[in-house]
Every structure is written in C-alpha cells, then in structure tokens.
Q: What sequence folds into this?
C-alpha cells in the first residue's frame, strides 16, 4: 500500500513540474516573438508605366496620392456606369393572363417583368395581382475599363501618402410612371349599386381631364377636371348623383355592365391606358 501511495505522489509531482515548464516556455516565446501589427487598410497603388507620377490609391472610395518610380505592369480597373430610370405601367392580372402574353402586349420581356416585380416563378400569377411592367428594356450594367499601372509598395520605401476626401456613391431608384388601373366593377346589373372602381398607382399626380371610359358598345363617359394623387381611388357610378372627390356619376337610367363585358379606359391622347373584363 505504501508503494502505491509513493507512485501516486511521484506522478502528481511530474504533472506539476510539466505544467510549470510549459508556462515558462510560453512566456519566454511571447517575450521573444511579439505579435505582428497588421495594417488593415488594403491599398492598390497606381502609377504611370513610363515616369514617376502622382497616383491614386482607392479603398472604400478614399483617394491617397503617392509618387513612385516606373518599371510597373498594367491592369484594368472597372468604373461602373450610373443606372437610369425606367418607365413602367401598372397592370392588374385577369383570368387567363400569362407573363408571356403580357410581355407581348406591352412590348416588354418576361425576364424584365419578373425582375421589376421580384418574381421567381413565371407561372405564379393570380387574378387581381398588380404588376409593374417596364415599357422599355431595363438598363444593363455596363462598365468602362481604364488601363493603369501597378507597383509593389515594398519596392519603394520612400513613398509618402496624403489622404483625400471620401467619395460616396448613391443608387438611382426606378421611378414608376403614374397610372390608373380598373380595380373592379361592383354591383353588375344593379343600377343603384353598379360602379367602376379606379385606382391610382405610381409616383406623382395625374390629371384625368380629357380621359374617357367606354364599354365598347357606344356608351362613353368623359371625365371632368380631376386630379388623382398617389394611392387615390375614385368610383364611377352608373346612376345619377352629385360628383364628389370619391364618387363620380354617369347619369344613366339603366345598368351598363354585365358579365364578360370589357371596361376600356383611354387618356386624352386616345391611348388605351387600362382595361378590365368583368368575371
């Protein structure tokens, strides 16, 4: 029993001595090998391939000017172009509509319509969905390349740098052309309740002066001097009544609308701006 205890004491003593030795060695190593200071600012240094010149160093739109000797190679730096605005129209999806058919109707493309509306599935349309359809191709990202020269910083220890002002970049958002959509037709065939609901989409304000609404069979309503603002809604009632900021009255004595009939909306230039087929 006494020999076992001695063996245990011997093992514990060796463990303590080993731990102390490791700590001492680590302290000596840290003392003789201090951590390297890293410059966290990456730089690309650009100089002329033929002579010593002032160069631009860009890091997060920060310009730094340096002077270096020659003997360098050339690289190409890309400069992104600005994104222009795109004209679009708003459209409410009806039964039977497809992205391919809408692309043909508005002279657009399925890819552009999906990009503007954030769609991932071209077959995911549903009745009543509001789509923003570009009436011209979306701008493509273009870049210009500028041949410049590069130099290695460590080859020229005498270089000095002067920090310049910071440049900021802004994105140009897509602007939506003001539009009017035919949201629905309520109370079809009942004169007291029958009305067409028009809704404003897009930015800015839109005057309906000179606009007209038709049923394709000779019934026409001419809009008065009326301005719709973003998000605004107006009801065109078939019956008679007094116009207000929310309701307009056609003055008919019999209902105008019925199932499968199409409502057509034209602007002052006689261009079709919206249509809606009553389900």
A:
């Amino acid at each position: 029993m006494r020999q076992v205890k001695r063996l245990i004491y011997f093992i514990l003593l060796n463990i303590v001595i080993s731990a102390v030795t490791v700590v001492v060695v680590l302290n000596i190593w840290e003392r003789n090998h201090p951590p390297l200071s890293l410059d966290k600012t990456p730089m690309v240094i650009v100089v002329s391939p033929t002579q010593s010149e002032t160069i631009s160093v860009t890091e997060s739109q920060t310009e730094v000017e340096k002077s270096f000797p020659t003997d360098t190679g050339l690289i190409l730096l890309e400069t992104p172009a600005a994104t222009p605005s795109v004209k679009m129209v708003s459209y409410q999806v009806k039964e039977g509509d497809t992205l391919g058919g809408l692309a043909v109707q508005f002279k657009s493309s399925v890819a552009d319509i999906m990009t503007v509306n954030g769609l991932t599935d071209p077959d995911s349309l549903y009745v009543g969905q509001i789509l923003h359809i570009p009436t011209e191709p979306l701008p493509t990202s273009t870049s210009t390349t500028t041949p410049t020269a590069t130099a290695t910083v460590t080859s020229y220890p005498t270089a000095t740098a002067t920090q310049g002002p910071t440049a900021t970049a802004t994105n140009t958002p897509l602007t939506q052309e003001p539009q009017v959509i035919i949201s629905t037709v309520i109370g079809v065939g009942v004169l007291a309740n029958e009305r067409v609901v028009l809704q404003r989409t897009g930015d800015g304000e839109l005057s309906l002066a000179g606009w007209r609404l038709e049923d394709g069979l000779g019934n026409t309503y001419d809009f008065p001097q009326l301005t719709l603002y973003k998000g605004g809604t107006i009801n065109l009632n078939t019956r008679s009544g007094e116009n207000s900021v929310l309701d307009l009255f056609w003055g008919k004595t019999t209902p105008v609308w019925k199932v499968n009939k199409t409502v057509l909306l034209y602007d002052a230039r006689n261009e079709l701006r919206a249509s809606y087929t009553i389900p």
Remarks:
- The chain has a mean pLDDT of 76.
